[in-house]
Automatic annotation (TrEMBL):
SUPFAM superfamilies: Glyceraldehyde-3-phosphate dehydrogenase-like, C-terminal domain, NAD(P)-binding Rossmann-fold domains. Coiled coil: none annotated. It comes from the Bacteria. It holds the Pfam family GFO_IDH_MocA. The keyword Oxidoreductase applies. Belongs to the Gfo/Idh/MocA family. This is Gfo/Idh/MocA family oxidoreductase. The lineage of its organism: Bacteria, Bacillati, Bacillota, Bacilli, Bacillales. Residues 140-257 form the GFO/IDH/MocA-like oxidoreductase domain.
Length: 337
């Protein structure tokens, strides 16, 4: 029988992989009120030991398997390359560990569903690590939309681009490892649009630049995501373009603009509301969304409550990603209904 956690106990985390994103996530977990990082694993013991020393983590392992055998760990965070998410999430679930897995959850919706089912069977929680959804300003944005201040939503636009194209050994540019801009950054505006609309898209159309210099992955993608009620999101994402991360919600009476929509920054927590030509800055007290993500995940486990975002949400997001990539590769409009 699995132990029932007392509310005073902290969730004990293990990290599977010494990825660069750990620079943001591990300190955030350590700063949380609900968790502590107990161990980190790498396939290279020296690499794990260096990470453990850097982040002041008590235990370092030279294999991923060892961390799953550690009975002092309640949950794992998986920042591995995309093609490894499914295997290690399922292994973690079978070992009785709760799973917070980096986005995108899997390489396709079918894999994502396998992960959801495996975690449900093992009676453990599974969450996709989309930290931007834990940003408290989203609640304020939804309040403004619900109030009718900007009128009825007519369109959305999201953009997330950066230029790291010279680093050709990067896992983002390896097709068999789940590389590509849609997987890496296009998933953000897709996820946010679904959250804002509160419904699932009905179709997707996309055009992409597949680079022969980067193992044929999509280095840039532009697309149209259709929702019901004749509303759509246009988006672009890329890994060989100037940096930007914006999102706009256009209504009949006004609009909401996020100049830094996805990556957290204390200097860019605010957002802009424009109504009838009048602009105002909505002030938001910055809270690290990585820490909020860790706390929300931990409380769901410690309190035995539903996750803030159900595991199935990741499957639904992957369905849209699948449609975008299919459209871009086959040059067709892909229906989702």
């Amino acid at each position: 029988m699995k132990e029932v956690f007392r509310l005073t106990r902290k969730l004990r985390w293990g990290v599977i992989g010494a990825a660069g994103i750990n620079q943001s996530v591990i300190p955030a977990i350590q700063a949380s009120s609900t968790g502590s990082v107990t161990a980190i694993a790498s396939r290279n013991l020296e690499k794990a030991q260096k990470a453990a020393e850097k982040f002041n983590i008590p235990t370092a392992y030279g294999s991923y398997e060892e961390i799953l055998l550690d009975d002092q760990i309640d949950a794992v965070y998986i920042p591995l390359p995309n093609h490894l998410h499914k295997d290690w999430a399922i292994r973690a679930a079978q070992a009785g560990k709760h799973v917070l897995c980096e986005k995108p959850l899997a390489l396709n919706a079918e894999e994502a569903q396998e992960m959801v089912d495996a975690c449900a069977k093992a009676n453990v929680k599974l969450a996709e690590a989309f930290m931007h959804r834990h940003n408290p300003r989203l609640e304020r944005i939804k309040e403004i939309i619900a109030s009718g201040e900007i009128g009825s939503i007519r369109a959305l636009h999201g953009a997330f681009t950066f230029n790291n194209a010279q680093d050709k050994n990067n896992v983002r540019y390896q097709a068999n490892m789940g590389g590509g801009s849609v997987y890496d950054v296009g998933c953000y505006p897709i996820s946010l649009a679904r959250l804002i609309m509160g419904s699932e898209p009905t179709a997707a159309t996309a055009h992409a630049f597949f680079s022969t210099e980067h193992d044929g992955v999509d280095m840039m993608c532009s697309g149209l995501i259709e929702f019901s009620d004749q509303v759509a999101m246009t988006f672009d994402c890329g890994m060989w373009a100037d940096f930007r991360q914006t999102f706009e919600i256009l209504g009949t009476e006004g609009r909401i603009e996020l100049s830094q929509a996805f990556l957290p920054s204390p200097d860019a927590a605010d957002f802009t509301v424009i109504v009838k030509g009048e602009r105002r800055e909505e002030k938001v007290v910055f809270q690290n969304p990585y820490t909020l993500q860790a706390d929300n995940f931990a409380r769901a486990i410690l309190d035995d409550q539903p996750l803030l975002y159900a595991s199935q949400d990741a499957v639904l997001n992957m369905r849209v990603i699948d449609a975008v990539l299919k459209s871009a590769k086959e040059k067709v409009r892909v229906s989702l209904v």
